[in-house]
Specification:
Elements lengths: L8 H4 L8 H11 L4 H17 L4 E3 L18 E5 L9 E7 L13 H9 L3 E6 L7 H17 L1 H4 L1 E12 H11 L21 E7 L15 H8 L8
Parallel strand pairs: 3-4, 3-5, 5-6
Antiparallel strand pairs: 1-2, 2-4
Helix pairs in contact: 2-3, 5-7
C-alpha cells in the first residue's frame, strides 16, 4: 500500500501544478479520466526524459545496475554532467544533485536550475538519474552510493577534487542525498569492481526542504508493526546519524 502522504491529494497537489499553460490544459484533460498521481507521473517523467536527452549519460554500472528490470520502463541509473567545466585546469569541488518527486518520478525544477547555479559558481555539477518506484528504496539508495563512488573514482577524468564531493537534494532528493551521509561504506577493498573499492561517503550534504524520516509514515491500518518500522528506519536519516 502507498504511504499516506502519497495518497493525500491535498498534500501533494503542488506536484501537478503546471508551470506553463500547455501543461495546464494537458493536466486538466488527463485528470478528468485518470488518477491525479498518474497524471503527475506522466507529465513529470516526460519533462525529465527531455532534460536527460540534452546530456550524455555516465552509467553507474558498466554492465547494468543490480536488480535492473527493463519492464519498469526506466533508464539505467546514470550521472549526467552539467556541463563539464573546461575553462580552468585546476581541480574543483563537485556537487551531485538528486531531484525530488516522492520516489514516484523526478522533478526537473529540482535538478537543472540547481545544477546551473552551482556550475556558474564554479563547481562541477552532476545530476543523478536514480531509480524510483516500483524499484525498492534499497535500489534507490544503492544508486546514490554508487554515484559518489563513481565520481570519486573518476575524479581525474572530471577534473574534480576527490575529497570535495557534496550531495544535494530537495524533498525525496534530500533523502537520497542523506544516504551518502548515513549509509555509506569506506570502500570494499577486496571487490572485483575497482569503483567499489573507493568510499561512498560524501564530504558534504546540502539539504533543501529534505525528507529525513520514513518512520512516522502510515501506509494503512496495521502498518505500525515493529517489522514495518524497522524497515522504514533503515532509510531514515534522523535515526542513522
Amino acid at each position: 500500500m502507498e504511504d499516506q502522504f502519497m495518497s493525500d491529494k491535498s498534500f501533494l497537489d503542488w506536484i501537478i501544478k503546471p508551470h506553463v499553460s500547455a501543461d495546464q490544459a494537458e493536466a486538466e484533460a488527463l485528470d478528468s479520466t485518470r488518477n491525479w498521481i498518474e497524471v503527475a507521473k506522466e507529465v513529470r517523467t516526460k519533462e525529465w526524459a527531455e532534460m536527460l536527452d540534452s546530456m550524455e549519460p555516465n552509467y553507474l554500472w558498466e554492465n547494468g545496475a543490480p536488480n535492473f528490470d527493463p519492464s519498469y520502463g526506466q533508464r539505467q541509473p546514470a550521472l549526467y554532467v552539467y556541463p563539464e567545466q573546461n575553462k580552468d585546469p585546476q581541480p574543483r569541488g563537485a556537487i551531485i544533485i538528486s531531484a525530488g518527486g516522492g520516489y514516484m518520478f523526478k522533478s526537473v525544477w529540482e535538478a537543472e536550475p540547481m545544477a546551473r547555479r552551482f556550475y556558474e559558481a564554479g563547481f562541477q555539477t552532476f545530476i543523478i538519474d536514480y531509480r524510483v518506484q516500483p524499484y525498492t528504496m534499497e535500489d534507490s539508495k544503492n544508486d546514490m552510493l554508487r554515484a559518489v563512488k563513481y565520481v570519486r573514482y573518476y575524479a581525474e577524468k572530471f577534473n574534480i577534487k576527490p575529497d570535495k564531493i557534496a550531495a544535494l537534494g530537495g524533498s525525496a532528493g534530500g533523502m537520497q542525498s542523506s544516504f551518502a551521509a548515513t549509509s555509506f561504506d569506506y570502500g570494499i577493498a577486496d571487490s572485483d569492481d575497482p569503483i567499489e573499492r573507493v568510499s561512498s561517503r560524501a564530504d558534504a550534504i546540502i539539504y533543501n526542504y529534505a525528507a529525513f524520516s520514513r518512520v512516522g509514515l502510515v501506509a494503512g491500518a496495521g502498518t505500525f508493526s515493529f517489522e514495518a518500522q524497522q524497515e522504514r528506519a533503515k532509510y531514515s536519516a534522523d535515526v542513522n546519524l
